[in-house]
Amino acid sequence: MGTTVEIYLYASSGERAAELLEAAFAEIERVEAALSAYRPTSEISRINATAARAPVVTDPEVFGLIALALDYGRRSDGAFDITVGPLVKAWGFFRADGCHPSPAELSEARAKIGWQRVALDHAERTIRFLTPGIELDLGGIGKGFALDRAAHILRRHGVTTALLGAGRSSYLAIGAPSGTEGWAITVPDPSDSARALSEVQLRDRSLSTSGADQKYFDLDGRRYSHVIDPRTGQPTTGMIQVTVTALTAIDSDALSTAVFVLGPERGADLIEDTAGATALLVAGYEGEHRVVAIEWSEAFDPRGR
Ligand code: FAD
């Protein structure tokens, strides 16, 4: 998934821990094989290649995930949009070679996006694209789904204490190490990653961060983030970092991306509408920013830096 997954767990022996880790990583590999737009053989690539021509009968698990992601499109008024792929490509983020698209390239990409242009038939379990050129990109939600699935496997094998993390941007905690309130996760200060903005004791919850400093490129003195505002076709500006905690990693992943696009006011509505969700935002621009807490119960440095 273009990232590093780490899993820490407690088990009765080293041998048992190795078996459990193997089962969890096999599940992550299985999810990646289904969801990766970087793999031509994935279920997502098959849907992308054929759903503009005719309805595609889809694997039940992938269908359920797409339905959930489209619901986030509805709930966020299109700020979270899994059809954003053509824009991600136009801005050079798919292959990490950032560039400024021409107005013609931009309008061509914008003509190919829109979560409402993906039609689901729940009875037939089919997906159909209502416009040619639509592509699904689960980059904003896929890692969270993989962590949720791997945690499900671990719980099914009796694990009660584990921490799963993907690339320092998504974490999922099962229980807590003995004698602690939770797994200590630091929310970094975006101006100085050695400093903490806040610290969360994560227990049976997930935490995801979307940040302008995670994937970006600098061009002509401006920093462009890989989170695109589908409503304008432009990389999101005015937001530096969004950290969300939620009951599942799918939720925290989708919400951190959505709130990054929506900003503090509209983002707060979405967080407050989601059971168990909290958020800590750093809004503004480098050198001039404010920290906004939404339902966030942990202490935080209100100044950031
Ligand atoms: P987040 O902030 O959570 O989300 C940003 C990502 O979401 C963007 O990169 C884009 O993909 C998408 N996005 C942008 N704007 C929006 C929006 N408004 N609404 C919804 N989504 C949006 N990367 C590689 O380089 N090589 C690989 O082989 C590779 N394989 C992958 C396989 C899978 C199954 C997945 C899920 C991702 C893969 N990636 C790969 C992508 C890479 O890891 C992404 O950078 C990552 O998914 C983005 O996560 P994030 O937490 O950094 O960003």
Short descriptors:
alpha+beta; binds flavin-adenine dinucleotide; 7-stranded antiparallel sheet; 305 residues
Main sheet attributes: strand count, strand direction, barrel closure: 7 strands, antiparallel
The ligands found in this model are: flavin-adenine dinucleotide
Q: Ends: how far apart?
A: 32 Å
Strand content is 25-35%
Order of helices and strands: EHHEHHHEEHEEEEEEEEEEHHEE
For the CA atoms, what is the radius of gyration? Answer: 19 Å
CATH uppermost class of the domain at 169-294? Alpha Beta
Low-confidence stretches: none
Protein architecture, described:
With 305 residues, this protein is α+β, with helices and mostly antiparallel strands. It has a domain of 126 residues: Roll (T-fold), CATH 3.10.520.10. 32% of the residues lie in helices and 28% in strands. It has eight helices and 16 strands. The strands form five sheets. A seven-stranded antiparallel β-sheet has the order 1-5-6-9-14-15-16. Helix 1 packs antiparallel against helix 6 and helix 6 runs antiparallel to helix 7. The chain is globular. It starts with a strand and ends in an 11-residue tail after the last strand. The model has no long low-confidence stretch (mean pLDDT 93). Flavin-adenine dinucleotide (FAD) binds next to helix 1, helix 6 and helix 7.
